[in-house]
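Section 5.1 Outputs to date
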Amino acid sequence: MPKEQDLGGRPSVPITGATAGEIAASVRDHVDSGALAPGAPLPPVRQLAEVLGVNRNTVVAAYRQLVQAGVAQTHGRAGTTVAEPQESAEEGFARDTVLRDVGHGNPAPGLLPDLSAGLATASRPPTLYGEPVIDPELAEWATRWIASDHPRDFRLTLTHGAVDAVERLLAQALTQGDAVALEDPCFLASIHTVRLAGYRTVPVPIDEEGMTVLGLRAALRAGVRAVVCTPRAHNPTGASLSAARAAELRAVLAEHPYVLVIEDDHYSRLATTGYHSIIGAEHARWALVRSVSKFLGPDLRLAFVASDPETARRLATRISPGTTWVSHLLQRLARTLLLDPAAGHQVAAAAAHYVERNAAFVAALAEHGITARAGDGLNVWVDVQGDAARVGRRLMRRGWLARTGSDFALGTAGSAARHLRLTVHDLDADAADRLVADIAEAVTGRPTAGPAA
């Protein structure tokens, strides 16, 4: 019979197990049942190891799994406790607010192609169980598109968007507790995907040329088994890899050919910067992901995944023609739009719109002495040279809802804490001028006379 642990004066519960996974599962059962409430202390590592008759490192590994899964939190010498429930930051429009949301990260609805033209033909012929999972015409188009940028041999897979692709790619290569290199600051969905799966995040800093060489080298030394990289239009900073930086990163990765490299080229057809890959010609495990969400619409849940044969084979076992294929209704609708010249012109116009609006906003901020980066993408990255949370609160009093850079940070916020990520491409000229003036006042704490002349 397992011994029961006295948890700091709370009712004792029996933590059992002989392996790290079993011990972690036992704690999770008690948390799920309510026997261990948020804030409850877990037994000291040495004490639990002695009671269970296991090595101290086994308990350390179990607690690490619980922390990675968000079930527990560590306090150093003060021990480990059951984690308090926390709401995770999410992309998209804020609900239940009267403020003007300039942190939503959405494309402009009016610049997305009209779906109605493709809906009439998307439902025929019907697709039945056991039929091919990818529409042949769509596969032909996507293969040509990706091969023009990525000429090495690959196999094509479809997933329900980029986030689904990254989740499936990591799941077929990793187990709980494995380390994943993520950009810091990082796209919110990637943070959630890695943490919820129980992987260990290793941050790689970002500069104006993308993922840093020193950061990637340190992550590989730390034993990461996968790297998730945004080659252009990095969210939230807008940075894109230069050709020189990509070559340096390929050289670093050449010594680790079996580390899974995932490139999330989410902005693809809207990008004004070139695609420079960190996937070397001889790299064994890799995947390039391109979704249609930014240029055809977030609700068209479809992404193309080009990958090496082994990765593609493993993905195929998770996307079967019997249950989990991507709807052929969506595939035919996407195919119609991707082949339609008018829709292509609409995408090009949207790309130009985002560049022009973001650049104009950055220039207006510069007139007030505020540095911001438009880069490529839907957002601007504003350096407030101080506490961005405080600036955000001041903007709320002026009717704006902004998103602070700390939402995107891994671990300690660092320089991200002095940044705002703003979505301004959908503001008219008057609203943009008001926001610039309000940011200047919020940053300096001094009233402005209005938009700079």
